[in-house]
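Query structure, 165 tokens:
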């Protein structure tokens, strides 16, 4: 894997990198949208992210399968966090996202796998795949993400409080 030219992921070694990954996981968990879509993010390494989620009937459209918002939410988030794992100072923003639906989603576990593809400095490109509990790909997406003016350290979910780890 080639890291972006700006070296943002090259903080102060593995300890700093791991702390950044855990902070991104806390940031994800603190987002109000995740009260509607209870899910868990893990950032295993720079440029990668995984989101686990259980599809329930309450996410279905009238024809009895998961609504496209479910696909978009998980794919966008996985690609986004894969890209933001390479940026230690700023929150990224999704500027475009393309989806491909390959199978209907029914009740059960799904996992979104995000991976940084290219870019750095200002714009990042990342992709994500969505797999159902049987390991079948049900969707994929590619997005572009741009550095914002929002410092990660200004976001309460990113910064751990003395009471929490």
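Result returned for the query:
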């Amino acid at each position: 894997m080639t890291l972006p030219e700006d070296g943002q992921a090259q903080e102060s070694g593995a300890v700093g990198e791991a702390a950044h990954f855990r902070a991104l996981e806390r940031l994800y968990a603190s987002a109000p949208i995740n009260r509607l879509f209870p899910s868990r993010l893990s950032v295993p390494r720079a440029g990668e992210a995984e989101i686990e989620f259980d599809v329930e009937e309450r996410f279905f459209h009238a024809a009895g399968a998961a609504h496209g918002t479910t696909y978009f939410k998980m794919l966008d988030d996985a690609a986004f966090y894969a890209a933001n794992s390479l940026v230690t100072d700023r929150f990224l923003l999704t500027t475009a996202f393309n989806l491909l639906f390959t199978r209907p989603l029914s009740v059960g576990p799904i996992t979104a796998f995000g991976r940084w593809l290219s870019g750095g400095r200002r714009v990042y490109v990342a992709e994500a795949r969505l797999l159902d509990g049987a390991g079948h790909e049900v969707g994929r997406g590619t997005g572009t993400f741009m550095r914002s003016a929002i410092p990660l350290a200004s976001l309460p979910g990113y910064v751990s409080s003395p009471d929490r780890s």
